[in-house]
Specification:
The protein has 6 helices and 8 strands. It is of the alpha/beta class. Helix 1 packs across helix 6 and helix 4 runs parallel beside helix 5. The structure holds NADP nicotinamide-adenine-dinucleotide phosphate.
């Protein structure tokens, strides 16, 4: 039977490219996104290439949407091999002051956490049992170098806090694996030319997804509970 991969934020940027690359590697890809109706062009272009992709509605900021999504996955497929928690927001600049930590508003931190941390946490919590049941799974939390505690960080506090906490989501679920062939890892894609990264970023989307694909397709006995960029360990 075909392996099933879920990619969140699959309508653009790293999520769209990851979906295409996993489908090219033989996965049926459940492309989770807020507005499938608005992504017809992207979906059709993948289908024209004979790729097995299924657009599905998922808003990570809504627990009901997460529940409905998981229920549909459970009903239609009953198992999941790969979960790429890719969707994310970076909205610190909305507080002015160039994202200065001195300007960050509580609401910005809360909104960012809802999408970048709580959403992936809940989705992982609900998909994890489907993986445990099959004894196999690869979970990739798309994090960031901006999450690192080991290097000095400034500005964009809400985003950095949310991604550091996402790394703890990795750590927590990695310790629930209990001997199954499940690998849960955080991956930093580097600074990538997407809507979020902007045109001046030093990496192409192709370079950015390399490490995500590596973690999504790790062989049996692959690393669990780590933080990586391009398949190399990154200090937390
Ligand atoms: N680009 C970089 O330089 C960089 C660096 C480090 C880490 N990252 C991480 O890589 C991931 C992908 O980033 P990207 O550069 O591809 O960003 P992007 O082009 O801005 O895409 C973000 C994606 O997340 C989706 N999303 C946002 N809020 C959502 C929600 N509530 N529910 C479901 N989907 C939601 C967006 O959907 P809509 O179209 O509906 O808004 C979009 O598909 C993010 O987690 C980001 O933090 C990026």
């Amino acid at each position: 039977m075909k392996k099933i991969a879920i990619v969140t934020g699959a309508n653009r940027g790293l999520g769209l490219a990851t979906s295409e690359a996993l489908a090219q590697r033989g996965f049926k890809v459940l492309m989770a996104m807020r507005n499938p109706d608005k992504a017809q062009k992207q979906i059709n272009s993948l289908k024209m290439k004979d790729l097995d992709v299924v657009p599905m509605k998922l808003d990570l900021a809504s627990e009901k949407s997460i529940n409905d999504f998981v229920e549909q996955v459970r009903r239609d497929y009953g198992f999941v091999d790969v979960l790429v928690n890719n969707a994310g927001i970076l909205i610190d600049s909305e507080d002015g002051g160039n994202g200065s930590v001195l300007k960050t508003k509580a609401a910005t931190i809360q909104k960012t956490f809802t999408t970048n941390t709580v959403g992936p946490f809940l989705l992982t919590q609900k998909i994890f049992p489907l993986m445990r049941q099959e004894g196999y799974g690869r979970i990739v939390n798309v994090s960031s170098g901006m999450a690192q505690l080991s290097t000095p960080q400034s500005a964009s506090a809400a985003y950095r806090l949310s991604k550091t906490a996402l790394n703890m989501v990795t750590n927590l679920f990695a310790s629930e694996v209990q001997g199954a062939d499940i690998c849960v890892n955080s991956v930093s894609p580097g600074w990538v030319r997407t809507d979020m990264g902007g045109p001046n970023a030093d990496r192409s989307i192709e370079q950015g997804i390399k490490g995500i694909l590596w973690a999504a397709t790790l062989p049996k006995g692959g690393p669990n509970g780590g933080f990586y960029r391009d398949g190399e360990p990154l200090p937390w």
